[in-house]
Amino acid sequence: VLLCSSVCRAFDGPASLLCSAQCWCAYHLASVAAQLSSTGISHQSPPSHSLDPSLQSQQQPLPGNSTCCVFFFFYFLLQYEYFNAVLINERDKDGNFLELGKEFILAPNDHFNNLPVNISLSDVQVPTNMYNKDPAIVNGVYWSESLNKVFVDNFDRDPSLIWQYFGSAKGFFRQYPGIKWEPDENGVIAFDCRNRKWYIQAATSPKDVVILVDVSGSMKGLRMTIAKQTVSSILDTLGDDDFFNIIAYNEELHYVEPCLNGTLVQADRTNKEHFREHLDKLFAKGIGMLDIALNEAFNILSDFNHTGQGSICSQAIMLITDGAVDTYDTIFAKYNWPDRKVRIFTYLIGREAAFADNLKWMACANKGFFTQISTLADVQENVMEYLHVLSRPKVIDQEHDVVWTEAYIDSTLADDQGPVLMTTVAMPVFSKQNETRSKGILLGVVGTDVPVKELLKTIPKYKLGIHGYAFAITNNGYILTHPELRPLYEEGKKRRKPNYSSVDLSEVEWEDRDDVLRNAMVNRKTGKFSMEVKKTVDKGKRVLVMTNDYYYTDIKGTPFSLGVALSRGHGKYFFRGNVTIEEGLHDLEHPDVSLADEWSYCNTDLHPEHRHLSQLEAIKLYLKGKEPLLQCDKELIQEVLFDAVVSAPIEAYWTSLALNKSENSDKGVEVAFLGTRTGLSRINLFVGAEQLTNQDFLKAGDKENIFNADHFPLWYRRAAEQIPGSFVYSIPFSTGTVNKSNVVTASTSIQLLDERKSPVVAAVGIQMKLEFFQRKFWTASRQCASLDGKCSISCDDETVNCYLIDNNGFILVSEDYTQTGDFFGEVEGAVMNKLLTMGSFKRITLYDYQAMCRANKESSDGAHGLLDPYNAFLAAVKWIMTELVLFLVEFNLCSWWHSDMTAKAQKLKQTLEPCDTEYPAFVSERTIKETSGNIACEDCSKSFVIQQIPSSNLFMVVVDSSCLCESVAPITMAPIEISQHNESLKCERLKAQKIRRRPESCHGFHPEENARECGGALNLQAKMVLILFPLLLMLFSR
C-alpha cells in the first residue's frame, strides 16, 4: 500500500486523488506479478527486479476500481530497466548512461574467440523496427530474466557450450553470454529471431503453402509494392522442410513460375530466390476473380498431398488482396469443411476496411488469421502472426520437440582456422497454465549453438588414413559438414556464398550419379558403398583418382546421418610402436616439433583453465601428470611418442647439411620438413625466417600444406600416391588467376620395405628456390653421354624448345621464364593434343557445383529500394512530410516514385552468382617412360620427344620450334559454365525432387484448439490500449 501511495504522488490533480483513494491496486499488482511469474519458462527464483515477496504472496484480488492498478502496471513497465544489447555502455553528451544503456561489464574471453562478453549475465536485442519499451516486450524481458541463472548453470556444467539464447514470440532476443550489438552503417539492426530457421522449425510443424496474390487493377501503386514485400516476408518464414508455390490472379491465373504449374516446390534458398526474382514481373490490371484462385489452390494442395511428397503435415493458403466481395463459403464447404485441414490466412492490403469483414470471416472459418497491412513498415510484424497460429497444436500437445538446423557460419567466432560452421538445437517454450491451454500461447523458442566439428570428434582423423574423411548430411540431403564444402568465395574478402547451407551431397560426391549413397543416408540406413572418385587438390588444379569405401549410419537424436570415406590402400592398417614416456617426452621437447592443433589429442574445452593450451602443451602436461583433469586419447599419444623418437635422428642429418657449406652453398634449399601419420611435424630452416621466399609455407594460414581437421598436407597426400621412393615435384599455386610462384616443393612418402602390409607412416620433403631448381635442370640438360662430351643437339639450340613438366602437365622449367606454372597445353597445344591422342596423358572431366560465375545484370537503384522495408518506409515518410496529402499515398505515391527512380538509365552491373561448371584436369600415364611423335600441320611437320625423369613425377619434353603449328588451338583448363539458359532444362531442374526424409514430428491440428482468436478488430483495439496507456501516464505525470 505504501508503494502504491508513493506512486500516486507522482500524479497531479484528480488523477492523484483517484489513485490515492483506491490503493487496493497494490493487491491487483501482486496478482499481476504472480501471473507473470507463473508464465515463466523456468521455476527459478524471482528476478532481481521483482517486487517485495510479501506483495507477491497475495493471491486474492480485492474489489474496487482497477484503473489505478493498470496505470501502476504500465508505470512499472516504463520504469523497468534491462540491458539492451545495442545501448549498453552508451552515454549521452553529458556523460550519463543512456536509458537501457547501463554499465555492462564486458571482458575478452578466449572461448568466444576473445570477443568481449559477460559470462554472468545475458542481454536483450530488440529489432530496430520495434519499440524497445513496448509493454509486451518489457513484460517478456522481465519474466525471462530468470533464464540468467539457467544459462550460467548450463555453462558451468558444460564449458564447451557456446551461445545460449531465448527468442521471444514478441520479437526480443535474449542472448548469453551478454555481448554488445552494433548497428549497420544505416543505424539498423534488422535481425529478428522469429525469422531464423531455428525459431520457425521449433515453433511450427512442416507445411505446404500456396500464396495467392491479387494483381487486379485496384492493386496498383503502393498496394502492389506492399503485396510483393508481404510475399517476400512469407518466403522468409519458410524452411527446407516446407513446400510452396505462388499464384497471381485477376480474371485468370498466373503462376509466378509457369514451369511449376499445378505443383509445389521445396522452400530451399535457391527456389525462394528464384521466385523473388519473378515477383518483379507482377503488375496490376483487370478484375480479381478470387473464386478461381481458391479452387486452384485447394486442388494443388490435395493433389500434391496424394503424391506422398511435401510436408504431409500442415497446409495453408495465404491470401494477399485489397478486398473480397464474397465469403466463398461454398468453396470452403466443398474442399475444407468440416475438417478444416487447410488453414486460410488473409492479408488485407491498404487502409480501406470495407472488405475486412469478408476476409476476417474466411480466416476465422478456416482456423487461420486475418490481418491488415497499411504500410511497408507493418509487413514483417503482421506476417509473423501466422506462425503463432501454426504453433498452437504443438503448444496444446505440450510437445517439446527438439529440432536441429542445417549448417551455417557464425561470423562472430571466425578465426585463423577459417569459418566456424554451426548447427542450432532448439525447442519451443510455452505456457503451462490450464486456463490458457486451448489458446496455445507460444512464449518463444530456446536454443543453443553446437559447432559442427563437435559432432565429428568421435572419429579421430588419424584413424581415417591419408585421404579419409568424415562427413554428415541433413534429412534433406544437404551437407552439414564435408571437406569439399566451400562456403566462402573471393579469397581474402571471405564472402559467404548465398546457397552454402543448401549444398546437396550429390553435388560434392557427384560421381554417384544414381544417388545411392545419398538416398541411403537420407533414409537413415546403416551400410557400405564403394565407387571410384576423382578428388581435386591444389586449388582444383590437380586430381587424384582413387576408389573410396563409404560407411554410413544415422546420428541418434538428430535428423543427421554420418558417413566415413576410406580410400583403398589407406586407413585399413595402422602401424603401432612402443617407447617409454621418458624417451618420447625428451624428443617432444625439441623446438622444431609441432602437432596438428585441429586434431583432438586432448580435450582442452572441458575446463576453462585448459583452453589456452596448445595440443602439444596439453600432451606434455598430461604425460607429466600435472593436469589430472585433462582427458586425452591414450592410443594416439602413444603413437605420437613413438613418432617423435623415431623421427628424432633426422634432426642431426639436417643439422649436418646446414653445417656443410658445400651442400647448400647458395642456400637454394630453404626448408626441410617431415610429417607423420599422427599429425607430428618437424621443420628445419636452412635460411633465416625473414629470408624465406615463401613466407606463408607451413603456417596456420596455409591450410593445404598443414595437418588440419579435414585432411593431411597436400605434399603428404600427393607423395602417398606416387611409387614408393619417388619424389613429387610441384610449383605451389597462388590464389590468383595467374600462378607465378618462386619456389618448388619436393616430397616423398616413407613406408616399411618388407613383406608386411605397411601403411604410409610419414612423408618428408624440401622447398627450394625456383631459380635454384631451374639452374640445376639446365646444368643437367647440357651433359651428354658421348665420349667427347659434345651434344649433337641441346636445349641451347634455337631449333628446339625444352620444357620440364609434372604429371599434371604444368610447366616447372621453360626457356621463357614467364611460362613457369602455366599448363603445357596452353603453350604447346598441338603437342599436348598429340600426347592425349597417344595415351601419354589423359583428360579427366570434373564438375564444380559450388562455383561462382560472373553475370551481367540490369540494375536500377529505385527498383531494389522499394523492396527494402526500411529504405522504402523512410522515403515514403519524407515524401508525406513534404506533400501532406494522405490520399495520394494509396494511389499516386508509387507512380510518382517510379517516375523519379526508373527514369535513371539501366546499368549493366557485373555480379558473382552461384553456378555449375565443368572443367578438365590431366594426368600422365605411369607406364609411358619415353615416346616421340610427329604432328602434321598446315605447311610443316612438328616433332617432339617426351621422357620421364626417373624416380619423379617429372617429364622432359623437347619440341621442334621451327614449326609453329598455329592451326591447332591451345588446350586450356578454363571452367565452362553448364548452361541453364535452356528453359526446358531449367524447368526440369526446378521440378526435380530428390529423396528427402520429412521430420518425424507433426502437429498440424488439435481438437481443443481455440480458432476464435483469428485477428481483426479486437486485435487492433488491444494494441490501441497498449499504446494509449503509456501516453495517458505521460500526460498525467506532467
Automatic annotation (TrEMBL):
GO molecular function term, any single one: voltage-gated calcium channel activity
Keyword 4Fe-4S: no
Keywords for the protein's UniProt record, in alphabetical order: Calcium, Calcium channel, Calcium transport, Disulfide bond, Glycoprotein, Ion channel, Ion transport, Membrane, Metal-binding, Signal, Transmembrane, Transmembrane helix, Transport, Voltage-gated channel
Domain of life: Eukaryota
Gene Ontology cellular-component annotations: voltage-gated calcium channel complex
Pfam name, any one: VWA_3
VWFA domain residues: 208-390
Residues annotated as transmembrane: none
UniProt topology in membrane: Single-pass type I membrane protein
Annotated compartments: Membrane
InterPro entries cross-referenced by the UniProt entry: Ca_channel_alpha-2/delta (IPR051173), VDCC_a2/dsu (IPR013680), VWA_N (IPR013608), VWF_A (IPR002035), vWFA_dom_sf (IPR036465)
Keyword Lipoprotein among record annotations: no
Family label: Belongs to the calcium channel subunit alpha-2/delta family.
PANTHER family the record matches: VOLTAGE-DEPENDENT CALCIUM CHANNEL SUBUNIT ALPHA-2/DELTA-RELATED (PTHR10166), VOLTAGE-DEPENDENT CALCIUM CHANNEL SUBUNIT ALPHA-2_DELTA-3 (PTHR10166:SF25)
Protein name (record): Calcium voltage-gated channel auxiliary subunit alpha2delta 3
